[in-house]
# Entry
Amino acid sequence: MTRAPALWLVAGALVVYGVYAAVRGVDAWQPDALVFGAASLAAAAGLLFERRWAAYLLHAIVALLVASWIAAVAGIVAAGWPYRDAAGVAVSLAPGIAAAALAIAASVTVFRHFRRPRAAARGETHSREVSP
# Structure
């Protein structure tokens, strides 16, 4: 298992979200929440065992979560935003923006962890030396 604290933190957040989504899905019978919960728990397990597929699963979860939040906000805007003042709008959008930012930061953290150096991606095993 890895010793990267950031990866453990992301996996822990995925476990918390996965359990929350699964419980919410069972209580309200929302199959999409059950799917997100199961996918989050699978991604957390994959990250803890440093499986590359878990990074792709995390990126998909983050993309779908951010897209669904944007769609929800767009629906509220189309129906007529409930607040007229800028402070009310900012306060109502702050939790969603913070959640989206944290999700994107988790995705970037996992991407950086699993990123292969360019030399390794090209199959090189040693560094290039410049002759004088």
In short: The CA atoms of residues 8 and 48 lie 7 Å apart. The chain has one domain: 5-115.
